[in-house]
């Protein structure tokens, strides 16, 4: 058992953040050891939202298990589904029609923007600014509307299926995405005006929560957290899937390693996502939206692995198949878990007031950590 | 030196705060650009996307006929055991026995609106409807029978 209450033998104070704390945005329980105002240690206690998704998947068929993964990292639901569809296609050796690949990548990038927007608004709110919340949700609402029209859901889309996507995009899809892109480019500067340039915000973020490149690698950090420390980790560049090798975009790499850098990486990633969408949206080829697959999918005996870049980092799906219609074992490597494990290292020596800022820039989604 | 830094800081802080406040002020005076919907006051005009996955339903035509053959594909495709097909055997005038649907039981309380059942149906007999105010006071009301009483399969659907 861990100590959770009172003081330690050295006289340090133990403080519980969560499981119901507004800044954790989910049921995450952190036990802080404080020496005065200085944080000596952080211990995450997990398991409050464990739903045993991996075990559940073992009883579902290869078509069915995809919908469950929307419930892991619910802000990157599309990208999770994408990873699962890709690994099944890899096992079955199905060629996905180009049209489906284009749609998938556009959807992925829209999801990424929506996710970063939610992170931006939630993190700003943690730091005491409330206006960003409404501003970012206005843009996010437009993405949600696009999703709703095409996929039929706003958060847990389940639009990707092995072999392609579930349905043709809505007739208005292209028009709406283009309108969104145009609007978004016009309003992106508002983000900087409102928060990035704000002196209070900068003082709270700069030089706080430093993570060195070596530590980022040894803790297995991925995504914007690693890239802010100067580690190349974008799976879209390292191991391109679908049409990511055909589009031009920059992997945002900064070397600051502090909270402000992580913040900037995400803001810049949004413009890169817009760049990808712009290249694809006008060139969606004609053709099928789904490859022909058998009614019952059976992966051959063996092991299959696929990784994708979600809004938070590298998501890996590992399937062990015994040749049956259900997977023998599924393992998800979630980005949130690894990023959280670096939290202890990042907050040591900083004040408790910095803690929320550091945690905010990690962009934790708790169901992704617990699964 | 210290004083100069201090004053510069105060100046920069005030300026950055005012930049932010300007934006807030802009939206305060431009109501037209606000897209908040006044739900539930706008119930009469609110329209969700046609594809919105609200609940599963079975469309019937004016003769109270549907397209469900009772093949159970949807039941197998559903990851949650939401659907139960209770079938019966129809006897045609020529004396042939044919499998047909007796009751299509749909448990809304167990449905995750994934849409896999609609995908699996070979005759497009079921669809997702964009209704969303589905709460009821008694949970038994969530167990629904989707084929209307007295309905039968449309002529020509195999
Ligand atoms: S929508 Fe999904 S959960 Fe609901 S009945 Fe259909 S297959 Fe089952
Ligand atoms: S709804 Fe469709 S899949 Fe389900 S039993 Fe009827 S015909 Fe078969």
Written overview of the protein:
The complex is a heterodimer of chains A (371) and B (158). Helices cover 47% and strands 12% of the residues of chain A. Chain A is of the alpha+beta class. Chain A has a single domain (13-370), classed as Cytochrome-c3 Hydrogenase, chain B (Orthogonal Bundle), CATH 1.10.645.10. The longest helix of chain A has 29 residues, at 98-126. The model of chain B has no long low-confidence stretch (mean pLDDT 83). With 158 residues, chain B is α+β, with helices and mostly antiparallel strands. The complex binds iron/sulfur cluster (2 copies).
Provide a concise account of the structure shown.
Chain A is α+β, with helices and mostly antiparallel strands. Chain A is 47% helix and 12% strand.
Radius of gyration of chain A: 21 Å
The assigned structural class of chain B equals: alpha+beta
In whole angstroms, the N-to-C terminal distance of chain A is 22 Å
CATH class of the largest domain in chain B: Alpha Beta
CATH class designation of chain A = Mainly Alpha
Name the helix and strand elements of chain A from N-terminus to C-terminus, one letter apiece.
EEEHHHHHEEHHHHHHEEEHHHH
Give descriptors for this structure:
heterodimer; A: alpha+beta; 8 strands; B: 158 residues; alpha+beta; 2 domains; three-stranded antiparallel β-sheet; two-stranded antiparallel sheet; 3 helices; 7 strands; 24% helix; binds iron/sulfur cluster
Write the layout of secondary structure elements.
The complex is a heterodimer of chains A (371) and B (158).
Chain A: E1 13-17, E2 29-35, E3 38-45, H1 53-57, H2 65-69, H3 77-92, H4 98-126, H5 131-151, E4 160-161, E5 164-165, H6 173-196, H7 199-205, H8 213-218, H9 223-227, H10 235-238, H11 259-281, E6 302-309, E7 314-321, E8 329-333, H12 335-341, H13 343-347, H14 352-362, H15 366-370
Helix pairs in contact in A: 3-4, 4-5, 4-11, 4-14, 5-6, 6-11, 11-14
Chain B: H1 2-29, E1 55-57, E2 65-66, H2 73-77, E3 83-91, E4 97-107, H3 116-120, E5 127-129, E6 143-145, E7 152-153
Parallel strand pairs in B: 2-7
Antiparallel strand pairs in B: 1-5, 3-4, 4-6
Residues 56, 77-78, 80, 82-83, 111-117 of chain B line the site of one iron/sulfur cluster (SF4).
């Amino acid at each position: 058992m861990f100590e959770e209450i009172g003081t330690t033998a050295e006289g340090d104070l133990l403080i519980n953040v969560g499981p119901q704390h507004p800044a954790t945005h989910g049921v995450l329980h952190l036990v802080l050891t404080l020496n005065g105002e200085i944080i000596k240690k952080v211990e995450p206690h997990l398991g409050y939202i464990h739903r045993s998704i991996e075990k559940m998947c073992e009883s579902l068929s290869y078509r069915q298990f995809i919908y469950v993964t929307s419930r892991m990292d619910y802000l990157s639901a599309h990208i999770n589904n994408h990873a699962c569809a890709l690994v099944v296609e890899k096992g079955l050796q199905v060629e996905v029609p180009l049209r489906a690949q284009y749609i998938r990548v556009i959807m992925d990038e829209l999801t990424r923007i929506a996710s970063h927007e939610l992170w931006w608004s939630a993190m700003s709110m943690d730091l005491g600014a409330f206006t960003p919340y409404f501003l970012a949700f206005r843009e996010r609402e437009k993405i949600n509307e696009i999703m709703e029209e095409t996929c039929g859901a706003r958060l847990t889309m389940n639009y990707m299926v092995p072999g392609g996507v579930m349905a043709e995009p809505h007739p208005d899809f292209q028009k709406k995405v283009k309108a969104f892109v145009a609007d978004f480019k016009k309003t992106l500067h508002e983000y900087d005006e409102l928060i990035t340039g704000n002196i209070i915000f900068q003082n709270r973020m700069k030089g706080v929560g430093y993570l060195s490149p070596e530590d980022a690698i040894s803790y297995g950090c991925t995504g914007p957290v690693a890239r802010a420390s100067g580690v190349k980790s974008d799976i879209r560049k390292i191991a391109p899937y679908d049409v990511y090798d055909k589009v031009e975009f920059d992997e945002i790499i900064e070397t600051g390693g502090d909270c402000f850098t992580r913040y900037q990486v995400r803001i810049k990633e949004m413009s890169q996502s817009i760049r990808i969408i712009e290249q694809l949206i006008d060139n969606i080829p004609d053709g099928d939206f789904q490859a022909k697959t058998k009614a019952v999918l059976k992966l051959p005996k063996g092991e299959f692995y696929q990784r994708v870049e979600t809004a938070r980092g590298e998501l890996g799906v590992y399937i062990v198949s015994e040749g049956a219609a259900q997977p023998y074992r599924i393992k998800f490597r979630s980005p949130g878990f690894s990023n959280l494990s670096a939290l202890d290292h990042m907050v040591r020596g900083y004040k408790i007031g910095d803690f929320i800022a550091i945690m905010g820039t990690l962009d934790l989604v708790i169901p992704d950590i617990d699964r | 030196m210290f004083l100069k830094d201090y004053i510069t800081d105060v100046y920069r802080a005030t300026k950055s705060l005012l930049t932010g406040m300007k934006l807030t002020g802009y939206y305060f005076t431009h109501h037209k650009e606000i897209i908040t919907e006044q739900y539930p006051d706008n119930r009469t005009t609110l329209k969700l996307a046609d594809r919105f996955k609200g609940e599963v339903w079975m469309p019937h035509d004016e003769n109270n006929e549907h397209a469900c053959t009772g093949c159970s594909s949807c039941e197998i495709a559903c990851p949650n055991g939401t659907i139960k097909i209770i079938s019966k055997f129809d006897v045609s005038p020529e004396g042939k026995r044919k499998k047909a649907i007796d009751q299509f039981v749909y448990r809304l309380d167990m449905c995750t609106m994934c849409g896999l059942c609609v995908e699996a149906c070979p005759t497009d007999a079921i669809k997702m409807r964009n209704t969303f105010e589905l709460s009821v006071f008694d949970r038994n009301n969530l167990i629904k029978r989707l084929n209307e009483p007295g309905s039968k399969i449309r002529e020509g659907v195999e």
